[in-house]
Amino acid sequence: MKHTFVSTHKHAASPVYLDCNATAPIEPDVRAAVTRWLAEEQGNAGSRTHEYGLRAKKAVQAAREKVASVVDAARDEAIFTSGATESNNIAILGLAPHAEDSDRMHIVSTAIEHKAVLEPLEALEKRGFSVTLVRPSASGAVSAESIREALRPDTVLVSVMQANNETGTLQPIGEIAGVLEDHDAYFHVDAAQGYGKDLEPLRNKRIDLISVSGHKIYGPVGVGALITRRRGFKRPPLTPLLFGGGQERGLRPGTLPVPLIVGFGVAAETALRDNVARLERCRAIRKEALAAFESLDILIHADPDRTLSHVLNFSVTGVDSEAIMVAIKDVAAVSNGSACTSQSYTPSHVLDAMGLPSEAISGAIRVSWSHLTPEVDWQLVASRIASLK
After folding, report:
1. DSSP one-letter code for 24
2. Domains of the chain and any CATH numbers
């Protein structure tokens, strides 16, 4: 079935939004679902004494099924959260009591993780945990063999992102899962950028915990999920970080935001349905961008063969990223790093871990689009950048 994507670009005079890795535009079907539940429904999914609550509970369960199905998980293995940051914290900090009780206090992760993983790990180090951060190659990817070499008998958790938020580089999740077949460590994947886009890796049953966000897959901001896949018949031994109410199997208490959850479910459903068409659209945009940038002799900070189709991180020799963003600000809205650190610019820890020279790091621009992105005047963008050289 062929699907026509509707642009969310409303004003011709506005720059085209090209920062979808920070947050993506909302899918029209999602917006309609959220609006309906905000305007026409009012039940609390925890209220079981009347029809309003029962309708809300039914809608939440339907959404849970859709969110879980993207990664081939059971419905009751999906726990709703406020987003991937909270999911990462629950997965990492929530495992700490089990690790302490079992005297397995070593964690393996990577030097290119999102701050929502690195900072909880830093918190655990202060509690006496030992953390090994594996560095990537110049391609932006870590190797499964480097993860194997970092493992110890007391390793309780391996946490590796599916796709890097700055470079778009896909990590070898399947290979790492294979490395862990003979090890008891829990495997956590921060899938904020790849969930609903790069489908197959997350369906690997060796992955115990998966963090996802609704607004990265054209759903609403403020909702996400933690997939807690059973190993045999046992769930990962997580301890809640918050208490009160008992919602989400006691792991994430609080009144469920039903409109957001419904929207997240629609976003997950459409991500599966339209996956191929979206990939084709994003690849076409990438091809147009690279063709326009050919004369600039850009340095791409990732292996093109293992990068998400909608992300391009590059620098131009001798040109600062701030200058580029100013030069094209009326044409395209781009970024020079992760949204989580953009309030006060610091050099990218991701690009630094890849071993890039300081000039390339200071000049790096991240461009990220979606199937909803309207036509971009890439030639104009390229000419503006060329004028800075």
Report:
1. P
2. 16-27+275-386 (3.90.1150.10), 29-272 (3.40.640.10)
* Tokens, residue 259: 């409109």
Go through the chain and tell me how many residues it has: 389
Least confident range of 11-15, 213-217, 235-239, 316-320: 11-15
DSSP secondary structure string, 69-85?
HTTT--GGGEEEESSHH
> Considering only CA atoms, which of 62, 287, 315, 371 is closest in space to residue 166?
315
pLDDT single digits (tens) 334-350: 998 755 544 556 789 99
Cβ-proximal residues to 20 (8 Å cutoff; 6+ apart), any chain: 310, 368, 369, 370, 373
Mind spelling out the 3-state secondary structure of 288-317? HHHHHHHHHCCEECCCHHHECCCEEEEECC
Q: What is the amino acid identity at position 366?
A: R
Q: What is the DSSP string of 220-239?
A: -TT-EEEEE--BTTB-----
Do the beta carbons of residue 291 and residue 350 sit within 8 Å?
no
Residues 6+ apart with CB under 8 A from 62: 265
**340 tagged catalytic:** yes
Q: What is the pLDDT of residues 310-328, one digit of tens each?
A: 999 999 999 999 999 999 9
User: Nearest-CA neighbor of 147 among 117, 185, 120?
Assistant: 185
**Cα 371 from Cα 277, distance rounded (Å):** 8
Percentage of the chain beyond pLDDT 70 is 94
Q: What is the DSSP letter of 163?
A: B
Of 6, 32, 323, 340, which is the active-site residue?
340
Query: CB–CB of 167/307 below 8 Å?
Result: yes
For the whole model, what pTM was predicted? 0.94
Give me the sheet containing 155-159, strands edge to edge.
78-81, 224-228, 209-213, 186-190, 155-159, 106-110, 130-134
- pLDDT per position as a tens digit, 225-272: 999 999 989 999 999 999 998 899 989 999 999 999 999 999 999 999
Are residues 326 and 11 in contact, defined by beta-carbon separation less than 8 angstroms?
A: no
Amino acid identity for residue 216 in this structure: K
CB atoms within 10 A of CB 71: 25
